[in-house]
Amino acid sequence: MPGLTTAAAYGALGWAGFLAWLAVGAVWRRWQLQRRFASARAAPATEHDAHLTELRVLIMRPCAGVDHDLLANLLSVAEVDSRTQWRVVMTVDDPADLARPVILEAIPKLRAMGVDAHTFIPPQTGPNRKASMLAAIMASEQGREAEVLINVDSNVDLRGYDLDGLIAPLLGPRRGDGRVGASWAPWSERRTQAGVGPRASEAVLGGSLAAFPLLCGIDPGGLVGKLWAVRREALDAVGDFDELTDYLGEDFEMARRLRAAGWSIAVAPVLARARGGDPPFRAVVGRFARWMLVVRGQRPLLLATYPLLFFATPLILALAAVGALAQPTLAGLAVALAVFARALITISARRWSGRGEGLAGALAWIRDAFLSDLVLALAWVRALSSRTIDWRGHLLRVDREGRLHALKK
Predict the structure, then answer these.
(1) Domain count for the chain
(2) Backbone angles phi, psi at 80, to 5 degrees
(3) Which residues of 48-58 are buried (b: 16+ CB within 10 A; e: fewer)?
(4) 308-337: per-residue pLDDT in tens?
(5) Is beta strand 394-398 parallel, antiparallel or unpaired with respect to 388-391?
(6) Which stretch of DSSP H or E encloses residue 211?
(7) 126 with 244, same domain?
(8) Is residue 291 included in any domain, yes or no?
Protein backbone atom coordinates (compact mmCIF):
# COMPACT_ATOMS: atom_id res chain seq x y z
CA MET A 1 0.00 0.00 0.00
CA PRO A 2 2.76 2.57 0.81
CA GLY A 3 4.30 1.79 -2.57
CA LEU A 4 1.03 2.53 -4.35
CA THR A 5 0.46 5.81 -2.53
CA THR A 6 4.03 6.92 -3.26
CA ALA A 7 3.55 6.03 -6.92
CA ALA A 8 0.32 8.04 -6.90
CA ALA A 9 2.18 11.09 -5.56
CA TYR A 10 4.87 10.85 -8.23
CA GLY A 11 2.28 10.17 -10.91
CA ALA A 12 0.23 13.20 -9.88
CA LEU A 13 3.35 15.38 -9.87
CA GLY A 14 4.46 14.22 -13.31
CA TRP A 15 0.98 14.64 -14.75
CA ALA A 16 0.55 18.10 -13.21
CA GLY A 17 3.98 19.16 -14.46
CA PHE A 18 3.08 18.05 -17.97
CA LEU A 19 -0.24 19.90 -17.79
CA ALA A 20 1.51 23.07 -16.60
CA TRP A 21 4.03 22.79 -19.44
CA LEU A 22 1.19 22.32 -21.93
CA ALA A 23 -0.74 25.29 -20.54
CA VAL A 24 2.26 27.62 -20.75
CA GLY A 25 3.04 26.37 -24.26
CA ALA A 26 -0.56 26.79 -25.41
CA VAL A 27 -0.75 30.35 -24.11
CA TRP A 28 2.65 31.19 -25.59
CA ARG A 29 1.71 29.86 -29.03
CA ARG A 30 -1.62 31.67 -28.91
CA TRP A 31 0.14 34.89 -27.96
CA GLN A 32 2.51 34.46 -30.92
CA LEU A 33 -0.49 33.90 -33.17
CA GLN A 34 -2.04 37.09 -31.80
CA ARG A 35 1.14 39.00 -32.69
CA ARG A 36 0.95 37.68 -36.26
CA PHE A 37 -2.69 38.77 -36.37
CA ALA A 38 -1.70 42.28 -35.26
CA SER A 39 1.13 42.44 -37.81
CA ALA A 40 -1.20 41.38 -40.60
CA ARG A 41 -3.72 44.06 -39.67
CA ALA A 42 -1.01 46.73 -39.52
CA ALA A 43 0.50 45.77 -42.89
CA PRO A 44 0.04 48.25 -45.77
CA ALA A 45 -2.52 47.57 -48.47
CA THR A 46 -1.45 45.15 -51.21
CA GLU A 47 -2.69 44.07 -54.60
CA HIS A 48 -4.68 41.37 -52.81
CA ASP A 49 -6.64 44.05 -50.95
CA ALA A 50 -7.53 45.67 -54.26
CA HIS A 51 -8.64 42.27 -55.56
CA LEU A 52 -11.22 42.05 -52.76
CA THR A 53 -13.60 44.43 -54.54
CA GLU A 54 -13.74 42.08 -57.53
CA LEU A 55 -13.94 38.83 -55.58
CA ARG A 56 -17.14 36.81 -56.02
CA VAL A 57 -18.14 35.36 -52.66
CA LEU A 58 -21.05 33.11 -51.72
CA ILE A 59 -22.16 32.93 -48.09
CA MET A 60 -23.88 29.62 -47.34
CA ARG A 61 -26.23 29.30 -44.36
CA PRO A 62 -27.55 25.74 -43.92
CA CYS A 63 -30.38 25.62 -41.38
CA ALA A 64 -32.19 22.86 -39.49
CA GLY A 65 -34.75 23.65 -36.84
CA VAL A 66 -35.14 26.97 -35.07
CA ASP A 67 -32.06 28.14 -33.20
CA HIS A 68 -32.34 30.87 -30.58
CA ASP A 69 -32.81 34.21 -32.39
CA LEU A 70 -32.61 32.51 -35.80
CA LEU A 71 -34.25 35.41 -37.64
CA ALA A 72 -31.84 37.92 -36.09
CA ASN A 73 -28.90 35.69 -37.00
CA LEU A 74 -30.03 35.39 -40.61
CA LEU A 75 -30.63 39.13 -40.91
CA SER A 76 -27.24 39.92 -39.35
CA VAL A 77 -25.53 39.17 -42.67
CA ALA A 78 -26.75 42.58 -43.88
CA GLU A 79 -24.36 44.19 -41.38
CA VAL A 80 -21.29 42.19 -42.33
CA ASP A 81 -18.14 44.21 -43.08
CA SER A 82 -16.88 43.29 -46.56
CA ARG A 83 -15.76 44.94 -49.78
CA THR A 84 -16.31 41.79 -51.82
CA GLN A 85 -19.14 41.06 -54.22
CA TRP A 86 -21.02 38.73 -51.94
CA ARG A 87 -24.42 37.09 -51.94
CA VAL A 88 -26.10 34.71 -49.53
CA VAL A 89 -28.01 31.44 -49.91
CA MET A 90 -30.00 29.99 -47.00
CA THR A 91 -31.33 26.44 -47.14
CA VAL A 92 -33.22 23.67 -45.41
CA ASP A 93 -33.49 20.14 -46.80
CA ASP A 94 -37.11 19.54 -45.81
CA PRO A 95 -40.11 21.73 -46.73
CA ALA A 96 -41.56 20.99 -43.28
CA ASP A 97 -38.44 22.15 -41.44
CA LEU A 98 -39.32 24.81 -38.86
CA ALA A 99 -36.48 27.00 -40.11
CA ARG A 100 -38.10 27.42 -43.54
CA PRO A 101 -40.73 30.01 -42.50
CA VAL A 102 -37.97 32.00 -40.80
CA ILE A 103 -35.87 31.94 -43.97
CA LEU A 104 -38.88 33.00 -46.05
CA GLU A 105 -39.40 35.90 -43.65
CA ALA A 106 -35.72 36.89 -43.83
CA ILE A 107 -35.38 36.86 -47.64
CA PRO A 108 -37.58 39.93 -48.46
CA LYS A 109 -36.17 41.84 -45.49
CA LEU A 110 -32.62 41.21 -46.67
CA ARG A 111 -33.47 42.17 -50.24
CA ALA A 112 -35.03 45.38 -48.98
CA MET A 113 -31.67 46.13 -47.34
CA GLY A 114 -29.89 45.59 -50.66
CA VAL A 115 -28.67 42.04 -50.00
CA ASP A 116 -28.63 39.53 -52.87
CA ALA A 117 -30.36 36.75 -50.90
CA HIS A 118 -31.70 33.41 -52.16
CA THR A 119 -33.11 30.15 -50.87
CA PHE A 120 -34.00 26.71 -52.19
CA ILE A 121 -34.68 23.23 -50.82
CA PRO A 122 -32.08 20.70 -52.01
CA PRO A 123 -32.66 16.96 -51.73
CA GLN A 124 -30.88 15.16 -48.91
CA THR A 125 -28.04 13.12 -50.41
CA GLY A 126 -26.45 11.64 -47.29
CA PRO A 127 -26.81 11.16 -43.54
CA ASN A 128 -24.92 14.37 -42.71
CA ARG A 129 -27.66 16.88 -43.50
CA LYS A 130 -25.47 19.96 -43.17
CA ALA A 131 -22.87 18.59 -45.59
CA SER A 132 -25.67 17.57 -47.94
CA MET A 133 -27.03 21.13 -48.02
CA LEU A 134 -23.55 22.60 -48.51
CA ALA A 135 -22.87 20.22 -51.39
CA ALA A 136 -26.11 21.28 -53.09
CA ILE A 137 -25.31 24.98 -52.69
CA MET A 138 -21.80 24.47 -54.07
CA ALA A 139 -23.24 22.68 -57.09
CA SER A 140 -25.86 25.39 -57.73
CA GLU A 141 -25.43 28.21 -60.23
CA GLN A 142 -24.46 30.64 -57.45
CA GLY A 143 -21.98 28.13 -56.06
CA ARG A 144 -20.30 27.49 -59.40
CA GLU A 145 -19.88 31.23 -60.03
CA ALA A 146 -18.26 31.93 -56.64
CA GLU A 147 -14.49 32.21 -56.25
CA VAL A 148 -14.74 31.85 -52.48
CA LEU A 149 -17.43 29.95 -50.59
CA ILE A 150 -18.12 30.65 -46.93
CA ASN A 151 -20.05 28.47 -44.53
CA VAL A 152 -21.79 30.30 -41.68
CA ASP A 153 -23.75 28.16 -39.23
CA SER A 154 -27.26 29.35 -38.43
CA ASN A 155 -26.49 30.44 -34.85
CA VAL A 156 -23.63 32.78 -35.84
CA ASP A 157 -24.24 36.50 -35.42
CA LEU A 158 -22.50 38.35 -38.27
CA ARG A 159 -23.23 41.90 -37.16
CA GLY A 160 -20.09 43.93 -37.79
CA TYR A 161 -18.08 40.82 -38.60
CA ASP A 162 -14.94 41.48 -40.67
CA LEU A 163 -15.56 39.03 -43.50
CA ASP A 164 -12.55 40.32 -45.41
CA GLY A 165 -10.39 39.28 -42.46
CA LEU A 166 -11.67 35.72 -42.88
CA ILE A 167 -10.98 35.80 -46.62
CA ALA A 168 -7.58 37.54 -46.48
CA PRO A 169 -5.49 34.39 -45.79
CA LEU A 170 -6.82 32.87 -49.03
CA LEU A 171 -5.53 35.67 -51.25
CA GLY A 172 -1.82 34.91 -51.13
CA PRO A 173 0.75 32.28 -50.19
CA ARG A 174 1.70 31.84 -46.57
CA ARG A 175 5.44 31.43 -46.10
CA GLY A 176 6.48 27.83 -45.47
CA ASP A 177 2.99 26.37 -45.80
CA GLY A 178 2.24 26.55 -49.49
CA ARG A 179 -0.97 28.08 -50.74
CA VAL A 180 -3.82 28.53 -48.29
CA GLY A 181 -6.93 26.71 -49.46
CA ALA A 182 -9.20 27.35 -46.49
CA SER A 183 -9.42 29.58 -43.45
CA TRP A 184 -11.56 29.32 -40.34
CA ALA A 185 -12.60 31.67 -37.58
CA PRO A 186 -12.11 30.91 -33.90
CA TRP A 187 -15.43 31.54 -32.21
CA SER A 188 -17.02 31.83 -28.82
CA GLU A 189 -20.59 31.55 -27.61
CA ARG A 190 -22.46 34.53 -26.25
CA ARG A 191 -24.70 33.35 -23.45
CA THR A 192 -28.26 34.72 -23.64
CA GLN A 193 -29.86 32.71 -20.80
CA ALA A 194 -29.05 32.22 -17.12
CA GLY A 195 -29.57 28.47 -16.67
CA VAL A 196 -26.99 25.81 -15.81
CA GLY A 197 -27.02 24.47 -19.39
CA PRO A 198 -26.13 27.80 -21.04
CA ARG A 199 -23.46 28.50 -18.40
CA ALA A 200 -21.94 25.04 -18.92
CA SER A 201 -21.82 25.50 -22.69
CA GLU A 202 -20.23 28.93 -22.30
CA ALA A 203 -17.68 27.51 -19.84
CA VAL A 204 -16.45 24.87 -22.29
CA LEU A 205 -16.36 27.21 -25.29
CA GLY A 206 -14.87 30.16 -23.43
CA GLY A 207 -13.09 28.84 -20.36
CA SER A 208 -11.32 25.57 -21.13
CA LEU A 209 -8.58 24.14 -23.32
CA ALA A 210 -11.37 23.20 -25.74
CA ALA A 211 -12.17 26.91 -26.29
CA PHE A 212 -11.45 27.52 -29.97
CA PRO A 213 -9.91 31.00 -29.44
CA LEU A 214 -7.23 29.25 -27.33
CA LEU A 215 -7.12 25.91 -29.15
CA CYS A 216 -6.39 27.62 -32.48
CA GLY A 217 -2.92 28.46 -31.18
CA ILE A 218 -2.21 24.77 -30.53
CA ASP A 219 -3.68 23.40 -33.77
CA PRO A 220 -3.91 26.24 -36.32
CA GLY A 221 -3.87 23.73 -39.18
CA GLY A 222 -7.17 22.21 -38.11
CA LEU A 223 -10.55 23.31 -39.39
CA VAL A 224 -13.59 24.07 -37.25
CA GLY A 225 -16.87 23.98 -39.13
CA LYS A 226 -18.75 26.87 -37.55
CA LEU A 227 -17.42 29.62 -39.86
CA TRP A 228 -14.97 28.87 -42.65
CA ALA A 229 -14.01 30.03 -46.14
CA VAL A 230 -12.57 27.97 -48.99
CA ARG A 231 -11.20 28.79 -52.44
CA ARG A 232 -13.13 27.23 -55.30
CA GLU A 233 -9.98 25.67 -56.82
CA ALA A 234 -9.02 24.16 -53.46
CA LEU A 235 -12.53 22.76 -53.09
CA ASP A 236 -12.35 21.22 -56.55
CA ALA A 237 -9.07 19.53 -55.63
CA VAL A 238 -10.60 17.60 -52.72
CA GLY A 239 -13.24 15.86 -54.84
CA ASP A 240 -17.01 15.75 -54.70
CA PHE A 241 -18.30 17.45 -51.54
CA ASP A 242 -21.21 15.00 -51.60
CA GLU A 243 -18.75 12.37 -50.38
CA LEU A 244 -18.41 14.28 -47.10
CA THR A 245 -22.05 13.57 -46.26
CA ASP A 246 -20.90 10.13 -45.10
CA TYR A 247 -18.95 11.67 -42.20
CA LEU A 248 -20.27 13.20 -38.99
CA GLY A 249 -17.36 15.67 -39.02
CA GLU A 250 -17.43 17.02 -42.56
CA ASP A 251 -14.98 19.73 -41.46
CA PHE A 252 -12.44 17.12 -40.24
CA GLU A 253 -12.65 15.23 -43.52
CA MET A 254 -12.51 18.39 -45.63
CA ALA A 255 -9.36 19.49 -43.79
CA ARG A 256 -7.76 16.07 -44.28
CA ARG A 257 -8.47 16.13 -48.01
CA LEU A 258 -7.22 19.70 -48.40
CA ARG A 259 -3.92 18.83 -46.74
CA ALA A 260 -3.61 15.65 -48.82
CA ALA A 261 -4.10 17.74 -51.97
CA GLY A 262 -1.27 20.08 -50.96
CA TRP A 263 -3.31 22.99 -49.60
CA SER A 264 -2.73 24.53 -46.19
CA ILE A 265 -5.30 25.86 -43.71
CA ALA A 266 -5.09 29.15 -41.84
CA VAL A 267 -6.74 30.63 -38.77
CA ALA A 268 -8.44 33.96 -39.47
CA PRO A 269 -7.58 36.87 -37.15
CA VAL A 270 -11.23 37.69 -36.43
CA LEU A 271 -13.24 36.27 -33.53
CA ALA A 272 -16.73 35.09 -34.45
CA ARG A 273 -19.74 35.08 -32.13
CA ALA A 274 -22.45 32.46 -31.87
CA ARG A 275 -25.66 33.08 -29.97
CA GLY A 276 -26.27 30.55 -27.25
CA GLY A 277 -29.74 29.22 -26.57
CA ASP A 278 -31.32 27.72 -23.46
CA PRO A 279 -30.37 24.03 -23.61
CA PRO A 280 -30.75 21.77 -20.57
CA PHE A 281 -27.51 20.49 -19.07
CA ARG A 282 -28.13 17.04 -20.56
CA ALA A 283 -28.34 18.52 -24.06
CA VAL A 284 -25.05 20.37 -23.55
CA VAL A 285 -23.33 17.12 -22.60
CA GLY A 286 -24.90 15.49 -25.66
CA ARG A 287 -23.63 18.26 -27.92
CA PHE A 288 -20.02 17.83 -26.84
CA ALA A 289 -20.38 14.05 -26.89
CA ARG A 290 -21.35 14.40 -30.55
CA TRP A 291 -18.22 16.43 -31.22
CA MET A 292 -16.11 13.81 -29.44
CA LEU A 293 -17.80 11.08 -31.48
CA VAL A 294 -16.39 12.85 -34.54
CA VAL A 295 -12.95 12.46 -32.99
CA ARG A 296 -13.63 8.82 -32.11
CA GLY A 297 -14.71 8.04 -35.65
CA GLN A 298 -12.18 10.07 -37.62
CA ARG A 299 -9.17 10.61 -35.32
CA PRO A 300 -9.60 7.86 -32.70
CA LEU A 301 -6.16 8.15 -31.08
CA LEU A 302 -6.88 11.78 -30.25
CA LEU A 303 -9.83 10.80 -28.06
CA ALA A 304 -7.46 9.21 -25.53
CA THR A 305 -5.90 12.61 -24.85
CA TYR A 306 -9.10 14.15 -23.47
CA PRO A 307 -8.77 12.92 -19.86
CA LEU A 308 -5.02 13.58 -20.00
CA LEU A 309 -5.43 17.18 -21.17
CA PHE A 310 -8.94 18.57 -21.40
CA PHE A 311 -10.39 17.58 -18.02
CA ALA A 312 -7.23 16.52 -16.22
CA THR A 313 -7.43 18.76 -13.15
CA PRO A 314 -9.96 16.80 -11.03
CA LEU A 315 -8.19 13.54 -11.91
CA ILE A 316 -4.82 14.95 -10.83
CA LEU A 317 -6.32 16.25 -7.60
CA ALA A 318 -7.81 12.83 -6.85
CA LEU A 319 -4.49 11.12 -7.55
CA ALA A 320 -2.67 13.67 -5.39
CA ALA A 321 -5.10 13.01 -2.53
CA VAL A 322 -4.09 9.35 -2.59
CA GLY A 323 -0.42 10.25 -2.88
CA ALA A 324 -0.64 12.62 0.08
CA LEU A 325 -0.94 9.61 2.39
CA ALA A 326 2.72 8.78 1.72
CA GLN A 327 4.25 11.89 0.13
CA PRO A 328 2.34 15.01 1.25
CA THR A 329 4.99 17.42 -0.06
CA LEU A 330 5.02 15.92 -3.55
CA ALA A 331 1.23 15.74 -3.54
CA GLY A 332 0.99 19.38 -2.49
CA LEU A 333 3.34 20.42 -5.30
CA ALA A 334 1.22 18.44 -7.76
CA VAL A 335 -1.91 20.24 -6.57
CA ALA A 336 -0.20 23.62 -6.91
CA LEU A 337 0.95 22.87 -10.47
CA ALA A 338 -2.47 21.54 -11.48
CA VAL A 339 -4.28 24.58 -10.09
CA PHE A 340 -1.77 26.91 -11.76
CA ALA A 341 -2.23 25.18 -15.12
CA ARG A 342 -6.02 25.21 -14.89
CA ALA A 343 -6.14 28.86 -13.83
CA LEU A 344 -3.84 29.85 -16.71
CA ILE A 345 -5.96 27.94 -19.22
CA THR A 346 -9.26 29.33 -17.94
CA ILE A 347 -8.13 32.95 -17.66
CA SER A 348 -6.47 32.85 -21.10
CA ALA A 349 -9.46 31.18 -22.75
CA ARG A 350 -11.79 33.77 -21.22
CA ARG A 351 -9.58 36.59 -22.43
CA TRP A 352 -9.29 35.44 -26.04
CA SER A 353 -12.97 34.56 -26.10
CA GLY A 354 -13.80 38.17 -25.24
CA ARG A 355 -15.14 37.31 -21.78
CA GLY A 356 -12.76 39.33 -19.61
CA GLU A 357 -9.11 39.46 -18.65
CA GLY A 358 -6.86 38.84 -15.70
CA LEU A 359 -7.93 37.74 -12.23
CA ALA A 360 -11.10 39.81 -12.15
CA GLY A 361 -14.12 37.72 -11.35
CA ALA A 362 -12.23 34.83 -9.73
CA LEU A 363 -15.50 33.10 -8.87
CA ALA A 364 -16.50 33.21 -12.54
CA TRP A 365 -13.38 31.44 -13.76
CA ILE A 366 -13.54 28.90 -10.93
CA ARG A 367 -17.13 28.15 -12.01
CA ASP A 368 -15.97 27.88 -15.63
CA ALA A 369 -13.24 25.39 -14.66
CA PHE A 370 -15.64 23.22 -12.66
CA LEU A 371 -18.45 23.22 -15.24
CA SER A 372 -16.22 22.68 -18.26
CA ASP A 373 -14.34 19.77 -16.67
CA LEU A 374 -17.63 18.17 -15.64
CA VAL A 375 -19.22 18.55 -19.08
CA LEU A 376 -16.16 17.30 -20.95
CA ALA A 377 -15.78 14.28 -18.65
CA LEU A 378 -19.44 13.28 -19.03
CA ALA A 379 -19.33 13.87 -22.79
CA TRP A 380 -16.19 11.74 -23.11
CA VAL A 381 -17.82 8.84 -21.28
CA ARG A 382 -20.91 9.12 -23.46
CA ALA A 383 -18.85 9.25 -26.68
CA LEU A 384 -16.97 6.12 -25.58
CA SER A 385 -20.10 4.24 -24.54
CA SER A 386 -22.21 4.77 -27.67
CA ARG A 387 -21.73 5.38 -31.38
CA THR A 388 -25.33 6.56 -31.79
CA ILE A 389 -26.53 10.16 -31.53
CA ASP A 390 -29.79 12.03 -31.97
CA TRP A 391 -29.20 15.18 -34.05
CA ARG A 392 -32.26 17.43 -34.29
CA GLY A 393 -34.66 14.52 -34.40
CA HIS A 394 -32.53 12.32 -36.68
CA LEU A 395 -30.91 9.15 -35.31
CA LEU A 396 -27.35 8.63 -36.60
CA ARG A 397 -24.59 6.10 -35.98
CA VAL A 398 -20.84 6.29 -36.62
CA ASP A 399 -19.34 2.93 -37.59
CA ARG A 400 -15.84 1.64 -36.78
CA GLU A 401 -14.46 3.06 -40.05
CA GLY A 402 -15.74 6.52 -39.13
CA ARG A 403 -18.61 6.47 -41.63
CA LEU A 404 -21.99 7.94 -40.72
CA HIS A 405 -25.28 6.06 -41.14
CA ALA A 406 -28.87 7.21 -40.69
CA LEU A 407 -31.03 4.97 -38.50
CA LYS A 408 -34.77 4.64 -38.25
CA LYS A 409 -36.33 5.56 -34.91
Answers:
(1) 2
(2) -70, 150
(3) eeeebeebebb
(4) 999 999 999 999 999 999 899 999 999 999
(5) antiparallel
(6) none
(7) yes
(8) no
